Amino acid sequence: MGRIARLGHALLGIIMxxxxxxxxxxxxxxxxLVAAILSSMLVVYGIQKIIYYFTMARHMVGxxxxxxxxxxxxxxxxxxxxxxxxxxxxxxIYLISYFGIMxxxxxxxxxxxxxxxxxxxxxxxxxxxxxxxVIACVVSIGNDDIIMTVFSIGMAYSAIRHIATSxxxxxxxxxx
Length: 176
Fold this sequence. Notes:
By secondary structure, the protein is mainly α. The chain has helices at residues 3-25, 27-55, 64-82, 88-115, 121-139, 144-167. Helix 4 (88-115) runs antiparallel to helix 5 (121-139), helix 4 (88-115) runs parallel beside helix 6 and helix 5 (121-139) runs antiparallel to helix 6 (144-167). The longest helix has 29 residues, at 27-55.
């Protein structure tokens, strides 16, 4: 990772950490704002994937799947935007799906890393924390304050991971 990418990761982590602290401080007022931000992020993510497909990925093996990812992300983001009068619904959907996928993939990545003799402790910890956040979201479906607290914790955890990634040395593999 280059210096500009490291700076970008660190800056994104700091911004995410500040947003997490803000949401933890004012959970009631932040629910609608968070739902709008998450829905808009999904739409932008979908547009990015579709643009990437038409510029580069259509020439790649498996690039066709990025087109479907982009379409599904735009659809899910637009659907979430229609639910803004009930802000806890999009947040719960987002939290459960995001942390569930990240938890399962983190645990599977740790199992694969252990099998190949790589470092697997942080992947396992990330997977376990993500699954614990899924359980917390499922338990607190009716309570907006707890949902916002869980979202703030998840955002702070992700921010700390971004900052740690920016500070970590990356391994360079040379093929001879």
